[in-house]
Amino acid sequence: MGRRPMPVGTYGKIRVESSGPKRYRARCRYRDFNGKVYDVERMGTSRTNAENNLKAAIRDWVTPVAGATVTASTRFRDVAARWLAELVRDAEREFRSWGTIDTYRNRLEGLVLPAVGDLRMNELSTPILDALCKKVRDNSSASSAKTVRAVLSGVCAYAVRHGALDANPAREITRLESKRAKNRPQKSRALTAVEVLDLLKRLDQDERAAKDDLPDLVRFFLGTGERTGEALGAHWPDFNAEARELAMSGNVIRVRGRGRIVNRGKT
User: Fold this and answer.
1) How many CB atoms lie within 10 A of CB 233?
2) Where in the chain is the domain with CATH 1.10.150?
3) 76-161 fold
4) pLDDT tens, 57-96?
């Protein structure tokens, strides 16, 4: 009769050996919940330290994925770089907006990485990520905090897909509501007909404005109500002369490292 296998979720005898001055290696065999047995080892500055590191690794164990470049011990900043590169590839295939990519990159580099960039994926927790989002909300705005939450959720979802995390810790971040403004901004008003005619007259008579096509552009604004980037992205092929309709299929944006481009992700 063969020896009975270890119960799933348990590990065998821990062996610790010296591998140099103040360097110890702790080893054991661990049977995962998928039934497979893995050899696990961790280093430490003492026998006790190495053994504790090994036990912590087993406690935070995530099943390895064949060929995976992201693991539970990969730092957040390295996973974030891979996630952002994936978004850039999507934008190059026009599946995502370049404007969104730049927004995510700015929040990632300016707010997220300084706070959690050096943490390993298995060190992330909902309380840590929740506290970061609340800090951004209180110091900046709810809008920035929501973008930070989207970045955190995207990076953690990438880690889940590659087997580095079992669940997304950003999923349970609290709702991020904005504070009520103490001073409401002054309500904007529309130009009167007289003001519109005066504006167009001044533009038509200005050589610099005419050279830069401002008279036509301002008339386009007045006739459509489109935003600046969308108006600049208008193309004749999108205009149906018979129906007198224009399909807005993109907007002009400035992308880091690419300059001004027409973003076809805008509809």
Assistant:
1) 21
2) 76-161
3) DNA polymerase; domain 1 (1.10.150)
4) 888 776 665 555 788 888 999 999 999 998 888 887 777 7
